[in-house]
């Protein structure tokens, strides 16, 4: 029922808001590696987004992940979704021809699967082994035509052969273009480098190569939440192999095209992209030795200093303490005393600290970790 669906949405919003207000939640987030790496990616990719908004993006990702988990099991979610830019011709392609169906971990990112089921469209899902093992039962029940679930493990040594076999047999395959949760191997040969927002990214190119070889269209669908109770499923125009181009040129142009269209939604709704949490694995980090500004000489005994938390963050991994530079995207191991001093600084103003000697204060200041 409509009331039940929207009541559950209200409950999820309330639960997430309640969690955000918990004691120490803010401090725990700011001192987590997950937040700092996400913030560093935002700093690089969306430099116009104010640092103060990074915390909101982090919380928004938690919210939209929770909404996704609910909506992927909701039987009537499609009754409340608006379909955008899906022509009759594109729908016929999906129904009657093998396609590479792609999406991003954005918005309520499982509603595309439910839309395919609603339209009796069979497909084989390409996913990491860990995701298949943990969520297979849920996927089979909610995101495939009954009795028609098929998977290909992303890590399988013959994954390309399996995908081609599915496409040539007349069956579509489904893939996330931003699926970089695991470690990357052979990154130079497996990936293309594309321009995306304010950064260069490594992106997987194999699925586009296989679409070209099999001569099937790439059809990308993207879910996004325009407002709390307004979920959209937007389709990009199909991209068919261009025989007038060299295959590598076609692959590069296609990836640039799709990511360029996607960038509009990322700019509009950055908090809806889960991949901020692991995007650092894809970024081409260019060495830049230039600092923001030259530091003026000051009298440390008579100056009030502050931790430059917009540029630097702190986090722990097991028992090791780290200082993270969002500008250079580098982590530095630091001792417990310095960690605790900077930790206090996230809560209070930082000036001269008794347990940091003058030489350390000067080094921190001239490296922009402390500012006057």
TrEMBL record:
Taxonomic superkingdom: Bacteria
Identification of the protein by name: Lipid A biosynthesis acyltransferase
Organism: Riemerella columbipharyngis
């Amino acid at each position: 029922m409509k009331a039940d669906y929207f009541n559950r949405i209200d409950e999820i919003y309330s639960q997430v808001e309640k969690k955000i207000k918990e004691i120490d939640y803010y401090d725990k987030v700011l001192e987590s590696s997950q937040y700092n790496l996400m913030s560093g990616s935002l700093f690089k990719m969306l430099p116009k987004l104010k640092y103060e908004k990074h915390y909101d993006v982090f919380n928004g990702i938690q919210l939209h992940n929770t909404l996704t988990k609910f909506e992927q099991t909701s039987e009537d979610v499609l009754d409340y979704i608006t379909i955008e830019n899906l022509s009759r011709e594109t729908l016929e392609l999906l129904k009657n021809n093998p396609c590479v169906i792609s999406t991003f971990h954005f918005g309520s990112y499982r509603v595309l699967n439910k839309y395919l089921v609603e339209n009796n469209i069979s497909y084989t899902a390409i996913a990491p082994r860990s995701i298949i093992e943990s969520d297979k039962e849920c996927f089979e029940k909610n995101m495939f035509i009954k009795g028609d679930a098929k998977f290909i493990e992303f890590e399988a040594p013959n994954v390309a052969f399996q995908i081609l076999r599915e496409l040539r047999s007349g069956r579509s395959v489904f893939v996330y273009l931003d699926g970089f949760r695991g470690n990357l191997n052979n990154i130079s040969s497996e990936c293309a480098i594309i321009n995306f927002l304010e950064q260069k990214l490594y992106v997987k190119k194999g699925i586009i190569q296989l679409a070209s070889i099999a001569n099937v269209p790439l059809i990308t669908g993207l879910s996004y939440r325009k407002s709390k109770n307004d979920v959209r499923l937007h389709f990009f125009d199909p991209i068919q192999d261009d025989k007038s181009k060299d295959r590598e040129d076609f692959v590069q142009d296609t990836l640039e095209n799709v990511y360029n269209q996607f960038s509009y939604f990322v700019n509009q709704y950055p908090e809806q992209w889960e991949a901020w949490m692991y995007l650092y694995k894809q970024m081409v980090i260019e060495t830049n030795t230039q600092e923001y500004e030259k530091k003026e000489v000051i009298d440390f005994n008579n100056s009030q200093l502050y931790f430059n938390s917009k540029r630097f963050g702190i986090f722990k991994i097991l028992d090791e303490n780290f200082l993270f530079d969002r500008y250079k995207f580098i982590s530095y191991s630091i001792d417990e005393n310095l960690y605790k001093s900077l930790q206090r600084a996230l809560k209070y103003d930082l000036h001269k600290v008794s347990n940091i000697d003058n030489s350390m204060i000067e080094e921190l200041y001239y490296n922009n970790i402390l500012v006057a």
